[in-house]
Amino acid sequence: MITDDARVVDTKACQAESWVKFNKNGEEYWALPACNFTGNFELTLGGAVGKDETGSSATDIVFQGKTLLKPLKTNGYGVGLAFGYVAHSAINPNRNLLGDFYGYVPVSFSFEEDRHVLHTNLGFLHSREKNTVNMTWGLGMEIQAVSNLFVIAETFGQSQGEFYYQAGLRYWIMPGHIQLDTTYGDRFGWGGDSRWFSIGLRLISAPFL
Q1: 134, 128 in Cβ contact below 8 A?
Q2: Which residues of 45-72 are buried (b: 16+ CB within 10 A; e: fewer)?
Q3: What is the DSSP string of the chain?
Q4: Which pLDDT tens digit goes with each residue over 105-127?
């Protein structure tokens, strides 16, 4: 999901989020490893390689820090804060809510003993090339269908740009450690040139640092 949650990986643990995004005119290959060294600060360093229909490629490098102002509690809410930087941001920045420098506040709400979780994001992104600062927003939901299977859906965008939506399924192969998801997304309105399909894998370690 593009809309982030008010959670960080467990203390002294790491995770690797990876996915392939199939766009109409090319593909994106993402990998975002992250670790929590201190207990309340998740550090991410990763990126993406994108290829278009002509075979040309572009590479992005993402560096992000995230902390929690209020941990998410069952049947309660949580608040976080994240800032990041992208080097050579050339891969669909509008659809990924990434600019040269960005920040956002994720707020999550838990319902029904964590069976349903609502996520909201509000932030900004700065484009050095265009010398602009735009507001970003996101609204997403995780809904438990059966034991390890969740329906996920979201909408997101920015103040000077188009709005997008995405929906799919998330399955915990090994709860708390191995997660698989798949989504379909597009922009609101007509055109048909922005739709995508993604397949993702998330691996979470036990504490070891």
Answers
A1: no
A2: ebbbebbeeeeeebebebebbbebeeeb
A3: --S--S--PPTT-EEEEEEEEEETTEEEEEEEEEEESSSS-EEEEEEEEEEETTS-EEEEEEEEEEEEEE---TTSEEEEEEEEEEES--S-HHHHT--SEEEEEEEEEEETTTTEEEEEEEEEEEETTTTEEEEEEEEEEEEEEETTEEEEEEEEEETTS-EEEEEEEEEEEETTTEEEEEEEEEESSS-SSS-EEEEEEEEEPPS--
A4: 999 999 999 999 999 999 999 88
CA distance 199 to 92: 17
96 burial class (0-12, 13-18, 19+ CB within 10 angstroms)? buried
Between CA 137 and CA 83 the distance in angstroms is 14
pTM: 0.89
Superfamily in which the 14-204 domain is placed by CATH:
monomeric porin ompg (2.40.160.40)
pLDDT in tens, 156-179: 999 987 899 999 999 999 999 999
Q: Residue ranges per domain, the chain?
A: 14-204
Distance CA 84, CA 46 (A): 11
